[in-house]
């Protein structure tokens, strides 16, 4: 099957858990999955993947986390034509710009030539049962895009 790469930024562990839920489902679907914290890889590593996913939290009033800024900036410079991408993340509905970082990464991926494989999934704080269902459906949609 395909090689999926998931890069995440997580302050409290919520977004890491979200990344792990997606990874587990992709593995169940027969894909090889590599999950890495954003400070341990380069955006150019996505050039080796068939499915590329960012899982990020949103800080405060809609800011990208500091630790993923370099990855974000580098991602916008890549040519990921032929890749399937997806974005998931966590935030707090207390803030007006709920999960803004997810939207920011959607925009960054759009610059790369990659194909959007599924609608983003935004989770309020920690993943609950309904969120897990959405994350698993997200992974299935990404997987199905490879066969189109």
UniProtKB/TrEMBL annotation:
Q: Name one GO molecular function term.
A: oxidoreductase activity, acting on NAD(P)H
Q: Does the UniProt entry include the keyword Electron transport?
A: yes
Q: What cofactors does this protein use?
A: FMN
* UniProt xrefs under PROSITE patterns: FLAVODOXIN (PS00201), FLAVODOXIN_LIKE (PS50902)
**Per its UniProt record, what Pfam families does this chain match?**
Flavodoxin_1 (PF00258)
Under InterPro entries, the record lists: Flav_short, Flavdoxin-like, Flavodoxin, Flavodoxin/NO_synth, Flavodoxin_CS, Flavoprotein-like_sf
Which keywords appear in this protein's UniProt record, sorted alphabetically? Electron transport, Flavoprotein, FMN, Transport
| Entry annotated with the keyword Electron transport | yes
Q: Where is the Flavodoxin-like domain?
A: 4-143
The record's section on PANTHER family has: FLAVODOXIN 1, FLAVODOXIN 2
NCBIfam families given in the database record: flav_short, PRK06703.1, PRK07308.1
User: What is the recorded function of this protein according to its Swiss-Prot or TrEMBL entry?
Assistant: Low-potential electron donor to a number of redox enzymes.
Q: Of which family is this protein a member?
A: Belongs to the flavodoxin family.
What protein am I looking at?
A: Flavodoxin
What organism does the UniProt record list as the source? Streptococcus zalophi
